[in-house]
Amino acid sequence: MTSNAPDTVKREPLVFHQPDITELEIESVVKTLRSGWLTSGPMTQEFEKRFSETIQAQHALAVTSCTAALHLALEALGIGPGDEVIVPTLTFTATAEAVMYLGATPVISDVCPRTMLMRLEDIEALVTEKTKAIMPVHVAGLPVDLDPILEFAKEKGIAIVEDAAHALPAKYKGRWIGSISDLTCFSFYATKTMTTGEGGMLTTSREDYAKRVKIMRQHGIDRDAWSRDSSVFAWQYEVIESGFKYNMPDVNAAIGVAQLKRLDEMWKRRTQISNIYFDILKDCSEIELPSKPAHANSQHSWHLFAIKVLENSPLNRNQLSQALKEQEVPTSVHWIPLHMQPFYKNRFGCKESDFPNGSFLGNSILSLPISSKLTDDDVAFVAETLVSTLKRK
Ligand SMILES: *Cc1c(COP(=O)(O)O)cnc(C)c1O
Fold it and tell me: Which of 27, 389, 74 is nearest to 246 (CA)?
């Protein structure tokens, strides 16, 4: 009990994700709480303005979640029953769920076994005359190779809705994700690269989509029609559609405004952490390290650091995750692919053999902690424990 040998000092157990919240966020929220305005108002407007400036998007519209943004984006495109939308199997269920909110059908594509991303070659064969949109997902924050997909989609008259829940701040060939295709959706869920507790943002360069989303996120109410005429009462408004309740409150936007100021600092920290992992794990032949952007002037957001546990590893993915857990190293899986989930198997008859790459990833990927709150020491502990666990067998 009285030993003071350094190797008996117990570490604080690591948690997989710790939100990176400072006094800046706390003060911003307190200011909003004292201001007398809690729902969507001046803070939400400021957040949208700063967000659009940060990633050079024409319009940024704050909503309650990325799922809401995906729903509104597909709605703005007029997608409905009978339409098909192509989604990758390696994504969170929200991507495909938003398609089903509108009564349309998600068509699931396989992905690249290395990058884990959607590729044109995987989606070409899935296109029919019913295909209305393609939803690239920038898994882990690595940008999808958008140009071939955008070119193909333009030729076919198919829309693109990017699920950029992981891709802030990420760049593809010199342009920020969120400033490239017609509609891009971001998440500020508690574990994402920046948070508002819960929240999301839709960016678009199209005036018509921006107008539609503004109306539909707040009960189908057209405020612009009245605000143009200053002689009418403040209580007057027109319901022009059956909309949704997806507006972001100022309390959440207050967190967002502060987090946005720290976006670059938090990104730099996650990049440092990824470099430590690459350095310590580079000679580990039992695992594959994450892909880096393939194009010049591109940027990984490093939302996740996902390794793949290879065939020659003495422990499979689940055994490795368990062995690490026993040594207080938390890991996670992003994700069990859609085609391996009971709902998608039952509804769409997905078979694992139809998605060879997705099935490989579903059984081999493992996310290591990469929260900006981790110390160098924490990261080295995770990486060294991983190495020693693989060598131990
Ligand atoms: C987190 C996530 C979502 C959902 O985001 P919410 O803001 O929680 O709705 C959607 N797509 C992907 C790829 C995600 O990781």
Answer: 74
